[in-house]
Amino acid sequence: MLPWLYGHRLRIAAFTIAVTLLVGCGFDAIFQFPGPGDVHFVFGDTVLTRGTTVPFVVTVIAGGTALARPHVTAFTYNAAVFTLTTGGDSLVALRNGQDSINIRFLSSLLTGVAADTVIHVRVKP
Fold first, then answer.
1. From residue 87, how far is each of 23, 34, 104, 109 by CA, in Å?
2. 59, 37, 56: which is closest to 46 by C-alpha?
3. What's the rounded Cα separation, in Å, for the pair 70 and 106?
4. What are the tens digits of pLDDT across the range 94-124?
C-alpha cells in the first residue's frame, strides 16, 4: 500500500471521529437560533363595573419567566364599551356590554409576527 494513501485514510478517519464527537456533544446547537419561546399573558380583571376606572395590569410570561417591564401595546375593538386611557395604564368602563382587548408583546428578540392575544372583557351595570 502506498504511504500517502495510508496518511489520507488516517486524516479522513480522524476528521469523521472529530465531527461525530462535536455533533454528538451538541456543538451544532450553538449555531441554531432558539426561536421565540412560549409567550403567555396574565390579565387582571375581565369583568368591569360601568363608570369605573381600573389599572391595566398585564403580566407577560416568556419561556416560563415573568418579565419585569414588558413592552406591550393594547387596543379595544369597540371603544364605546370600554377604552384604555391615553397613557395606556388604565381601563375605563363606559357602558354595559362585551368587548375584546388585543394585547401585543413587542420584543427586539422576536422576529416576524409579535406574540399577541385577545381577551374578552365584560362591563356590567
1. 51, 34, 16, 25
2. 56
3. 8
4. 999 999 888 887 765 655 555 667 888 888 9
